[in-house]
Amino acid sequence: MKGASLISYLANLIMIASADGVIDNKEEIAIDRICNEISAKRTDAEKARKVTKKGDYQVTPVGRYSERIRNLEDMIFVALSDNDLSDPEKSLILSFAKVIGAKQEQINTILSESITRFRTYESTIICPGCGYEIPSDWKFCAECGTSVQATTEVSSTSSTSNEDEIPDDSPEEKGLRFEKYILHKFNLNFCKVKEWRGDKFTDGIYAESTKYPDIEIEFSLKDTKKLFAVECKWRKGYFQDRIKWARKEQIFIYKCYSEENNIPVFVVIGVGRYPDNPEDVFVIPLDDLTEPFLTLDFLAKYRRLDKNKCFFFDLEKSVLR
């Protein structure tokens, strides 16, 4: 989302925050966090504020249905951030929900999720290695493997040699190693790589397209061709029998990409010490994913029993195996 649509999206949040007459500090923080999540610039937020100050601005639905629902979620999150859902805020939210066709059951679900989301944000810390947001009680970052709790003692009896350690690559380089591992699992007799975004970063600078799934592949069988996308995620290990595979806003972007391009997206997750030789590999249709955290019980049915086999795309069922 960009341009006028993005400005209206943010203006809707500001209208909710100011519905009770004042925007307090917690609501400002909530809006800043959302700007960060949807990659909105500070100048975008400033333009949105100017729009709302004109006096005639009305809360306006923008974008596709999925974006409108996301806007509703963010509006509710902002309204709840000061621990008080006022009558003016409630009135605006219900009016917006009615216009976009959201049902009461959806609103109730979003309310519940927003409360959980708010509590989660209150109990998170930022990884010093990669800036990833993780629960405050985690000992290492699920994104890059960096220790986030100070280690005061080093065991003198450790039997792990330097050869057993992962090379000190950046998170991007580790991710790239895993992408290469996955790419080598596609049979080039049937699969043609149409787009590979993983190699398009340098010194932390990314192209806009790198927010989308890592790889686009065209599968061909006889006279039939089918395009699909793959998002690769490597994690060093499990924590409390689960992993965090993505942030909420990333999931939203992947789903928008799938809808806009009308192609299926599959998330391939590797877990284990080495990005180029993970212990476990899972292949999950994006349609089956809604939450950032995945438990071992959930992952079990998507595990590749033979991780060294080449991938095969089932044209009839539109499933990557």
Automatic annotation (TrEMBL):
InterPro entries: TerB-like, Zinc_ribbon_dom. Residues 152-172 are annotated as: Disordered. Residues 127-148 form the Zinc-ribbon domain. Residues 162-171 have a biased composition (Acidic residues). Residues 152-161 have a biased composition (Low complexity). This is Zinc-ribbon domain-containing protein. It comes from Candidatus Desulfaltia bathyphila.
